[in-house]
Amino acid sequence: MTRKLLPALTAVLTAVSVLAACSSPAEEPPPEAVIPPPAGLIEDGYLTYGTAASFPPFESKENGEPVGFDIDMGNKIADYLGLRTRVLDIDFDGLVPALQGGRVDIINSAMYINEERAAVVDYVPYMKIGESLIGNTDKKIAVKELPKDLSGKTVAVTRGAIGETYMNDFNQQLKAAGLPPMEVMALPNNQDALLAVQSGRADLFDTSTPGAAHTIAKSGDRFEVVNTFALDTQIGIAVPKNKPQLKAAMQQAVQRFIDSGQYDELLTKYNLPTDSKLSQ
């Protein structure tokens, strides 16, 4: 009997720990819905989303709590649907599997839209974005011509992010031109990739244009942008392909968010360029 009761007790204690971590005694009820919430959410009354909280200014952690543009946007969208939010911090390359496996309702993590991802998930775009290569200022690495000037260099990227795809594509171009490839150092998150550059293990770090601006603003003169490219890319909220009602609700909520003026307030709050705004 003891062996049967212990797993049940463990499950109860685990459930209590999860609830304690996700809720607060003073939690206020959400606003009244202005957009009907979709059916089939993982948990009634909540919009559960996955994010890789290592990509400021979109998502990061302060004192253990998720913060950033996407986090604020997620709260606004949930308000329109009359829902609270649950945020799961997941390594970037685990986000799509988490969505497909039913762990999260959506991915809200500055996810770049490309053909490979669009084949397995649907998207609701919300911002235009580009890519930047940043390096240590004191090394003065010149990257004027892509991909030629990356030949033989080591470039750190976030594993599973669009930067890894771009660098692998550049390597194919280098190979076709008969030039030595770069080493693509794929690391779990942005902080690890940036640390690789800071420590000298990598020459450059590929990140988003807003991410690069945020990094440089926070680090003084330690880093500099050496090149920008792919400036017409979009990022979006990812939803499962088999949930059209959820996608429609996200589209309505994102449009309302953009039209409300709150979008512009968050662009200012997080020092994002105004030309990042995407008109739906």
List keywords for this structure.
single chain, 280 residues, alpha/beta, D-Maltodextrin-Binding Protein, domain 2, 2 domains, eight-stranded mixed β-sheet, two-stranded antiparallel sheet, 10 strands, disordered N terminus, Glutamine-binding periplasmic protein
Principal-axis shape: globular
CATH class of the largest domain: Alpha Beta
Order of helices and strands: HEEEHEHEHEEHEHEHEHH
Give the low-pLDDT segments. 1-25
* Average residue pLDDT: 89
Structural domains: how many = 2
The largest beta-sheet arranges its strands as 4-1-5-10-6-9-7-8
Task: Tell me the CATH topology of the largest domain.
Answer: D-Maltodextrin-Binding Protein, domain 2
Give the N-to-C terminal Cα separation: 60 Å
Structure at a glance:
It contains nine helices and ten strands. With 280 residues, the chain is an alpha/beta fold.
Give the secondary structure arrangement, pairings included.
Blueprint: H1 2-22, E1 46-51, E2 60-62, E3 65-67, H2 69-80, E4 84-89, H3 95-100, E5 106-112, H4 115-118, E6 121-136, E7 154-158, H5 162-176, E8 183-187, H6 190-199, E9 204-208, H7 209-219, E10 223-240, H8 244-259, H9 262-269
Parallel strand pairs: 1-4, 1-5, 7-8, 7-9
Antiparallel strand pairs: 2-3, 5-10, 6-9, 6-10
